Amino acid sequence: MLDIAAVWLPVTAAVLAVAGIALAACRRRAVTATALGTALGGAFLALAVAVGRRLTLADLHDPAHQPAAGALYDALTSTLRTVSRLLVALGLTVAVTCRLSGPLVRRRRASAAPAADPVQRPMRVRA
């Protein structure tokens, strides 16, 4: 079951993110929000691995076994720590790039009221 979830859960998340961005009214904002969500998810993953390590080592009865258990835990979770750092870095990079790549000047929205005719100035005739 875990092998199936390990393959299909990231694929499903990526497909849903792409579909959400494609259907969004403002794609730049959707990409920024998705990237920030990815970075936040990576930070939560890193926090969960760190808390799990602390709880695992605190649960040992013999303090002499803690270095060996810590090394084993670090070996088993090295991929998770690497992926969490990658998610945070990639998410923040995409969010900052997306935010800075927009137009520097915002356009004014057209008002709903019809535009008034400009006042005609009298013309001078030169003789």
Would you mind describing this structure in some detail?
The mean pLDDT is 86. It is elongated and about 110 Å long. It starts with a helix and ends in a 27-residue tail after the last helix. With 127 residues, it is mainly alpha-helical.
Short précis:
This protein has 127 residues and is an all-alpha fold. 69% of the residues lie in helices and 0% in strands. The model has no long low-confidence stretch (mean pLDDT 86).
Characteristic key phrases:
single chain; 69% helix; mainly alpha; elongated; 127 residues
Topology, pairings included?
Blueprint (H helix, E strand, L loop, with lengths): L1 H22 L3 H32 L7 H11 L1 H23 L27
Termini Cα gap: 95 Å
Structural class: mainly alpha
Instruction: Compute the number of helices.
Output: 4
Strand-residue fraction?
Answer: under 5%
Helix percentage range: 55-70%
Q: pLDDT under 50 segments (min length 5)? A: none
Number of strands: 0
The average pLDDT score comes to: 86
- Taken in chain order, the helices and strands follow as HHHH
> Radius of gyration, rounded?
28 Å
Main pleated sheet:
none
Shape: elongated
